[in-house]
Amino acid sequence: MRTAKKLTDKVTWVGKVDWELETFHGDEYSTHKGTSYNSYLIRDEKVVLIDTVWLPYDREFVEHLRSEIDLQEIDYIIIQHAEIDHSGALLELMREIPDTPIYCTKNGERILKGHFHQDWNIVTVKTGDTLDIGQSQLIFVEAPMLHWPDTMFTYMTGENILFSNDAFGQHYATESLYNDAADQCELFAEAMKYYANILTPFSALVKKKINEVLAMELPVNLICTSHGVIWRDDPAQIIHKYLEWADNYQENQISIVYDTMWNSTRLMAEAIAAGIQAEDPKVTVKLFNAAKYDKNDIVTEIFKSKAILAGSPTVNNRYLSSMGGLLEMVKGLKFKNKKAAAFGSYGWSGESVKLLTEDLASAGFVIVGDGYRSLWVPDEEVLQACQEFGRSFVRSL
Ligand code: FEO
Description:
Layout: E1 5-6, E2 11-13, E3 16-18, E4 23-24, E5 29-30, E6 35-37, E7 40-43, E8 47-50, H1 58-68, E9 76-78, H2 84-87, H3 90-96, E10 102-104, H4 106-116, E11 122-124, E12 130-132, E13 137-142, E14 152-156, E15 161-165, H5 184-199, H6 203-215, E16 222-225, E17 230-231, H7 236-245, E18 253-258, H8 264-279, E19 284-289, H9 295-304, E20 307-311, H10 321-333, E21 339-346, H11 352-362, E22 366-367, E23 372-375, H12 380-395
Parallel strand pairs: 8-9, 9-10, 10-11, 15-16, 18-19, 18-20, 20-21, 21-22, 21-23
Antiparallel strand pairs: 1-2, 2-7, 3-6, 4-5, 7-8, 12-13, 13-14, 14-15, 16-17
Helix pairs in contact: 5-9, 6-7, 8-12
This protein binds MU-OXO-diiron.
The site of MU-OXO-diiron has 9 residues, from helix 2.
């Protein structure tokens, strides 16, 4: 069990690794590999705590922190982002050191007050403001919408550390803490899932903020995120990944996402996939049943795709609810530069394809064709037509 880990002579990780977390943001984000809430203690001439941990671990956090330092010695608390996974232990901590100043952005002050309703000693900072803590200086950089309006980064001179809060993070529990000691496949899969599901809507701001920070030409030895690993080995690699992901990222992939009642739409999906693969053997085609497969993992696959096909039978003049939930998520994520079409089986009224097409369009997809629907159970002729639908879809991309 890791309760504290020295990163440099002056900086110690004092966060919490949460191996048990199954979902984050309520039930909105699946965390198959847990997460961590990273908090950092800086000991220069002044003592600074950067961020805390999620609320359920507040007592544990304060007790571990007390074993690391006399709490009364903490001169400043910096809350880079007031979401409860980082500010959750503040109440417990502030009971012990009620007068310690809390540094945050103006928006951070509003959110902390809205969350905790306390009259704490809050000092607001903006981009370019600094705090002298001895040999090192802390430089604050506001980073609104990475992930909330209040978010900011903190750069520590001398140690050359960028404390980036949510940016560059992953919901990924590791005992080793550093990026080079982690399973690289898992690490980058979780980093991409995190970007796709949380940061995609803010890609324009991500690009702008990264370029602004790069223009400051600050040397960076460590990127200390608030979730997952600390980037120690070639920290620039995750910055470059973010620039790639923020630039309407796509791979040579087509995802077929569907739900089915009595397998007719599934048979159509499989025939369409075969048609795509026959037409373009180099494209990666993946199928996902939206009712059975993890919704955040599907979102990540859509993020990677240049095009998607959405399928559902018609039920009660609509399409199936698993597709509805997924499209609602996708709409909010505002993917750009992706093409789409719809398909599905029907028995009598047959609205699902038209409705799916409309909702894909309103989610920002470029619609290719009118989609394809088939009556009752597809026979060999219909399956051939589905294959041809897949072939013509891939030709039109
Ligand atoms: Fe990790 Fe936006 O909180």
